[in-house]
Amino acid sequence: MIQLLFGDRKAWPDYEAPLTRALSASGLGVAVGTEAAPETVDYIVTSPDGWITDFAPYCRAKAVFNLWAGVEEITGNSTLTQPLVRMVEPGLREGMVEWVTGHVLRHHLGLDRYIKRTVPHWDYAAPPLARNRTVGILGLGELGAASAQALAGLGFHVIGWSRTKKDISGVETHGGPTGLDAVLGASDIVVLLLPATPSTENTLDAPAFSRMRKGVVVLNPGRGTLIDDDALLGALETGQVAHATLDVFREEPLPPAHPFWAHPHVTITPHVASATRPGTASEAIAENIRRGESGQAFLGLVDRGAGY
Ligand code: NAP
């Protein structure tokens, strides 16, 4: 029997039924529960809300599956020597595509002018077309690439940037350190879908904002560390950035005194851009155990050197 230890008691009630179902359907013979003697454990599920902080006693474990796509809270754990796998699953991907598309369309169509209208005002102007709007996506991984393709499908001119250059149908892609400026300088709306690593910290700082188009809109469903908060406030002040829609922050929940809360050109969503869905995530975990047992590479294997 393969032993899977589920190391997040808060999430367990949501996962118990779908995970038991997915493991049973896999036919692999996996026992799952929130308790097991460490030396008997073959695979571990963990999360930032999980209780396992010392992975050393799990000497037999072949992998640690993180329930979140972002792994910055766990990559620094020196006791974790087993392969670390981040969450890659369709529910997480679809949720992010919907959040990104919705917020891009809000700004593209200028919906606020109608939603915020308080007096009768027949404010006619022909709506713009997506083909005339450039959306830049920083990070073309699981979530960035899917968001880029969805926006391109709606007709937007989509350009994207990643560490290694990608080939995505309908999307203009740039790679490596020199690619960032090409995307920043051409985009009307910039979406951040990079991971939090030392090399992505303050990707949008004061010099980066100054290289962007005047009146650019910034959407950050990635991580708070990608933006220098003071530089963003400065860029909002001058109108260099017209609006920022932020889902993630350096400190969460965002402290009540933070200037973002009261800023008229900042929209805050409380880290809801996307969530791991127990049904589809359970199937992803079962698939990764199947891969582990047959010697195949795990889907979402983290490169510990790169930090994501
Ligand atoms: P991923 O598949 O690992 O993709 C990350 C992308 O960022 C890749 O394209 C990668 O380039 C690129 N990248 C990394 N470091 C870079 C650098 N220094 N310069 C340029 N590009 C760099 O991750 P994902 O699954 O798409 O998730 C992205 C992030 O979204 C997660 O790390 C997490 O922080 C965030 N997230 C947020 C929510 C939410 O609810 N707000 C939910 C889920 C995830 P390569 O392709 O060349 O490797």
Strand order of the largest sheet: 8-7-6-9-10-11-12
The amount of helix comes to 25-40%
N-to-C CA distance: 31 Å
Q: Tell me, rounded to a whole number, the average pLDDT.
A: 98
Strand content: 15-25%
The secondary-structure element order is EHEEEEHHEHEEHEHEHEHEH
Structural class: alpha/beta
Unreliable sequence segments: none
Cα shape: elongated
Strand elements, count: 12
Radius of gyration: 21 Å
Distinct compounds present: NADP nicotinamide-adenine-dinucleotide phosphate
Brief descriptors of the model:
308 residues, alpha/beta, seven-stranded parallel beta sheet, five-stranded parallel beta sheet, 12 strands, 17% strand, binds NADP nicotinamide-adenine-dinucleotide phosphate
In short:
The protein is of the alpha/beta class and 308 residues long. The chain is 31% helix and 17% strand.
Describe this structure in words.
- The chain is of the alpha/beta class and 308 residues long.
- 31% of the residues lie in helices and 17% in strands.
- The strands form two sheets. Strands 8-7-6-9-10-11-12 form a seven-stranded parallel sheet, sandwiched between helices. Strands 2-1-3-4-5 form a five-stranded parallel sheet, covered by helices on one side.
- Helix 1 packs across helix 9 and helix 2 (90-109) packs across helix 4.
- The longest helix has 20 residues, at 90-109.
- The radius of gyration is 21 Å and the shape is elongated.
- The two termini are 31 Å apart.
- The structure holds NADP nicotinamide-adenine-dinucleotide phosphate (NAP).
- NADP nicotinamide-adenine-dinucleotide phosphate (NAP) binds next to helix 2, helix 4 and strand 7.
